[in-house]
Amino acid sequence: MDSLILYVALPLGLLALRTVYHLYFHPLSKFPGPKLAAATFLYEFYYDVIKSGMYIWEIERMHEKYGEYTDPSISTIKARGQPLIPHPGPIVRINPREIHIKDSTYYDEIHAGASHKRSKDPKYAVAFGAPYSLVGTITHDHHRFRRGLLSSYFSKRSVVNLGPSIHDKVDKLIARFEQAHQAGDVLHLQLDFAALTADVITDYCYGWSYGYLDGEKGSRSNDLVDAVNGLMVMFHINRFFPFLISIFRNAPPTLVRWLQPHMADLFDLKNRLRQQADDTLQ
Fold first, then answer.
1. Strands 91-95 and 87-88
2. Which of 35-44, 169-178, 212-221 has the lowest mean pLDDT?
């Protein structure tokens, strides 16, 4: 019985000590924000996983609520009987290890130039499940190397040379608008503009186009849009449960499609591109 109590009390005690550290002794403890968000990731988990990516709006509310705070460094002014000057609070603490900044004057500090190296947070980079992509590259130097391999591909000259292909697809989109206007049909503009984007990108990057602008396919559905939306849903989950990435990647395709059909569409695209790369090398 005593050992059982010890097994229960020890984790609870460690959790209590960790909470106290996050609230009062952590380097970020001086920044304003909800105490619950500072103490545990459950606050963020609720809004991003349970409420499907709504934490960004909760962060906006935090900035409104904690918009001003008193700088502890000027407490001596109060001791001298002078009024305590409120400082603007563009920074709020959104979880135990992160702050969020809402102030354009911090832009150059955060997005520093080549003289200051900034690596990505591994917790965010791995959540995309694409370690060999630019978005999944963590270190500054490695990202710079990979980006350099693609710089000429997206240079101004390369994009200008893409003009005729873009104009052709824009003409198809305009024709669709005119046809819908004459018929009095309702267009799903999100899908139609996504069809234009998907056709341009796939044609330029892969040498073939999905053809969403041809016929009525793009007006009814767009599996690339669905795949990206599914990816963002899984992104929030993967941040808290990164082991799910390996499970989905190694699971049978039929199981993945049943559990997360939108993600299965993305995996199908990756498999097609991988096969295309293999065929090119042969």
1. unpaired
2. 212-221
d(CA 172, CA 215): 10
DSSP 218: H
Phi, psi of 55 (to 5 degrees): -65, -30
Q: How far apart are CA 267 and CA 269, in angstroms?
A: 5
Burial of 23 (0-12, 13-18, 19+ CB in 10 A): middle
Has residue 27 got a pLDDT over 80?
A: yes
- Scanning the chain, the segments in alpha helix (DSSP H) are 2-20, 35-39, 42-45, 55-65, 75-79, 107-110, 122-125, 140-150, 156-161, 163-183, 189-206, 217-220, 223-240, 243-250, 253-259, 261-281
The CA distance from 282 to 175, in Å, is 40
Indicate whether 279 pLDDT > 90: no
Query: What would the two tokens of residue 106 be?
Result: 């911090």
CB contact at 8 A, 265 and 230: yes
Radius of gyration of the chain (CA): 25
The answer to whether the CB of 204 falls within 8 A of the CB of 165 is yes
Residue 87, beta-bridge partner list: 69
Q: How far apart are alpha carbons 226 and 266 in whole angstroms?
A: 9
CA nearest neighbour of 235 among 100, 136, 120, 124: 124
Q: What is d(CA 74, CA 86) in angstroms, rounded to the nearest whole number?
A: 10
Q: Which amino acid is at 61?
A: R
Please give the angle made by the CA atoms of 98, 103 and 107, to the nearest 5 degrees: 85
CA distance 262 to 227: 5
* Cα dihedral: 170, 262, 94, 99 (round 10): -50
Q: Among 48-57, 87-96, 134-143, name the one with the lowest average pLDDT.
A: 87-96
